[in-house]
Design a protein that fits this description.
By secondary structure, this protein is mainly beta. It contains 3 helices and 18 strands. The strands form 4 sheets. A 12-stranded mixed β-sheet has the order 1-2-3-5-7-8-10-12-13-14-15-17, with no helix packed on it. A two-stranded parallel ribbon has the order 4-6. A two-stranded parallel ribbon has the order 9-11. The N terminus is likely disordered.
Amino acid sequence: MKLLLLIFCLTISSCLSDDNICPSNEDIKPCSCSIGVDNRPSISCEGLESVDDLKKAMKGMQDFKFSNFYIEKSNIGILPSDIFSDIEVRFMNILFTNLTSLSESLNMPAFLGLESTLEYLQIRDAFITEETPLIRISLSHLKKLQFLQLEGNVMPTIGNDWFESGPYRLRQLYLMDTYTKKVGSHAFSSLSELRRFSLTGGSVSEIVRDMFPSQATYLETLDFSNNKISVLPKDIFSRMPSLNEVFLDNNDFTTIDEVAFAQVWGQLSHAYFYGNPLNCNTDMKWIYKYRLPESLQGYCATPPSLRYRYLSNLTLTDFLN
């Protein structure tokens, strides 16, 4: 009987643990809490008119643990660096919310207090004007962060200092529709665990191999779509043994360089070149001497005899003339 009582008490304690309890919605207005499909509480804050609304709501969340935290369609301005210091969050999403800074100063790390819990961070359409761009981000203290997506934010320059000290466990980095013009020569070199990388929707014209870890052992995907790149460094794909996807759509390439791609061509499953002014002359004949990627996408712009022909439909005989 005592054993059954002990088991019952432990079961009740588990059900009532802080891990799956919401704070009172009355205490966290104008935010709300609900239990998600993972049986853990999630916070939704929508339509906040100022950072004061968020501060008020946070007072009712102290010491609670949340799976997801959403801030949507709000006007925050400066996000205090320690505003989440009294809670735990695994997945943070700030969407369609006006921000001018992620902390009180450029030297102040953002999201203080979430060092040992935050695994996923998405900031979308928050820094949307050239007057208030995202100038710098410091996340090296977020030791568990594995996923970072910055989408639709004006980020003119991504400097070497953005990720120079990590976060070292970061595996997926998506910088999408960034309006970026310049990237530091070593910008992502510290991210040795990186698997998937995107830098799209800017006007970047030059990339170098040193942007990435010297041994990019785990890197599987590179996406530089929608930029202004016309030439790849000869060594750009060196020391990338796991690379299997390359997306270079809507750039300014006139050819697919054999020296650059020879190191990885045989291991690629996806190679995308849509929207490039490709000149399908004899310089591209090499492609059809090897196994083609499972998905080779793009088409010729010139010569006239091959215009609009899809790369995947060409053969060596198309290059005889």
